């Protein structure tokens, strides 16, 4: 009973310490050192008097101490991007591998951050660690930026006493996954750009160019060919109802995005359609396999149990279809099946991936084999995206040439016809 009371007392004290740390305010200070040189910096403290006392203890003469001003446009700053987390992961891994204490590492990294929101977040995590929390517990306050997979890997490293090694692995994982995400965005950007340019050029032609010719033809009273009449009718509709067309386009895009977030069935449908597209489907499929292999390899190497690891891997594939397949694999493995057999049952993984997984299981080097699979498919994605970019550049010119050229020819057909009758 005494032991239980002592544990409860320690927990209350720890909670009080954490609450006390979280109330610290960040102050900007200006002081003179022993040589009379002006020094500037910032320091978290309960009040300005404690900042001055600390500066005097360090041999400096405080001049001004002010509470750090909040940003003009919102106190939280810019959004924390996955790329920011990837860079942070590499920095913290490098510092810890070099023997820099964790709290000091967070302070150094936070001091170099330009993103106010991320800086405050890192300082808050640092304060949590100073208050007695483990790293994965302190990161748990920010589940959006540091997802379950990230925290599980950190927790595994802390449990095994190899946190610096695991952080280095996590940093590499974040860098690779962010790299492949950028490749996918690049691959999706080009088709979207083609459609946007085609839509913009068509609108300009129909709203501003064609009406000039329409008035000319009306004054001439000539009989118009079918292509010309079609272009004039389209222009007339666009001039009077352009807001409906724009509303339909942007409404459709917004509806697809909202439907994907709110309806799981619709998200499945979009994902299946995406995976079956001629070129993009192959890129998305290879990307999902690469992310699956790298994520599973990282979690397995960190010592996370396979069934538990697959829970985190399912959300990291970037595909609803592959995410569901991973969950089915998890259920199969939970009842005793091998990983390679569970992968084969989904019908989504190429034979090479299944065979390399089988070799990895038999040889006891599953993580190494998964990394090799990830590297292979990451390279395939890189090649496919570069090829797609090369092919789409002339395609844009062809589409625009056909579109604009077709309109111009249809508009000049009546003129050619009139010239032939003279």
From TrEMBL:
PROSITE patterns: T2SP_F (PS00874)
Keyword hit for Ligase: no
Domain Type II secretion system protein GspF: 88-211, 292-414
Location, primary (coarse class): membrane
Transmembrane segments: 188-214, 240-259, 395-415
Bilayer topology term: Multi-pass membrane protein
Subcellular location: Cell inner membrane
One GO term describing the cellular component: plasma membrane
Biological process, per Gene Ontology: protein secretion by the type II secretion system
Family: Belongs to the GSP F family.
Protein name as annotated: Type IV pilus assembly protein PilC
Organism: Frateuria terrea
Taxonomic lineage: Bacteria, Pseudomonadati, Pseudomonadota, Gammaproteobacteria, Lysobacterales
């Amino acid at each position: 009973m005494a032991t239980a009371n002592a544990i409860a007392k320690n927990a209350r004290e720890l909670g009080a310490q954490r609450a006390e740390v979280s109330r610290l305010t960040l102050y900007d200070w200006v002081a003179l050192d022993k040589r009379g040189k002006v020094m500037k910096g910032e320091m978290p403290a309960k009040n300005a008097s404690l900042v001055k006392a600390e500066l005097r203890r360090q041999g400096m003469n405080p001049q001004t101490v002010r509470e750090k001003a909040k940003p003009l446009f919102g106190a939280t700053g810019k959004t924390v991007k996955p790329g920011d987390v990837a860079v942070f992961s590499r920095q913290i891994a490098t510092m810890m591998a070099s023997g820099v204490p964790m709290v000091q590492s967070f302070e150094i990294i936070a001091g170099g951050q330009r993103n106010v929101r991320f800086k405050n977040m890192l300082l808050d995590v640092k304060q949590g660690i100073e208050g007695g929390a483990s790293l994965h517990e302190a990161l748990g306050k920010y589940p959006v930026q540091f997802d379950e997979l990230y925290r599980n890997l950190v927790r595994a490293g802390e449990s095994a006493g190899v946190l610096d090694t695991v952080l280095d692995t996590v940093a590499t994982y974040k860098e690779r996954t962010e790299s492949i995400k950028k490749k996918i965005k690049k691959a999706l950007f080009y088709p979207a750009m083609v459609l946007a340019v085609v839509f913009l050029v068509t609108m300009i032609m129909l709203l501003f160019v064609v009406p000039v010719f329409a008035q000319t033809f009306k004054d001439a009273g000539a009989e118009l060919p079918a292509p010309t009449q079609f272009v004039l009718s389209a222009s007339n509709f666009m001039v009077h109802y352009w807001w409906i067309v724009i509303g339909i386009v942007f409404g459709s895009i917004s509806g697809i995005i909202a439907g994907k977030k709110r309806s799981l069935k619709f998200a499945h449908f979009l994902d299946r359609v995406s995976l079956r597209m001629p070129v993009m489907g192959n890129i998305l499929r290879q990307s999902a396999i690469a992310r699956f292999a790298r994520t599973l390899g990282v979690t397995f190497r960190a010592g996370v149990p396979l069934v538990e690891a697959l829970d985190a891997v399912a959300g990291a594939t970037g595909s609803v279809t592959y995410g569901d397949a991973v969950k089915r694999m998890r259920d199969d493995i939970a009842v005793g099946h091998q990983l390679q057999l569970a992968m084969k049952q989904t019908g989504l993984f190429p034979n090479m991936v299944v065979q390399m997984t089988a070799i990895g299981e038999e040889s006891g080097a599953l993580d190494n084999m998964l990394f090799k699979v990830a590297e292979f498919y990451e390279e395939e994605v890189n090649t496919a995206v570069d090829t797609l970019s090369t092919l789409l550049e002339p395609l844009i010119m062809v589409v625009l040439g056909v579109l604009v050229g077709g309109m111009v020819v249809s508009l000049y057909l009546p003129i050619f016809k009139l010239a032939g009758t003279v």
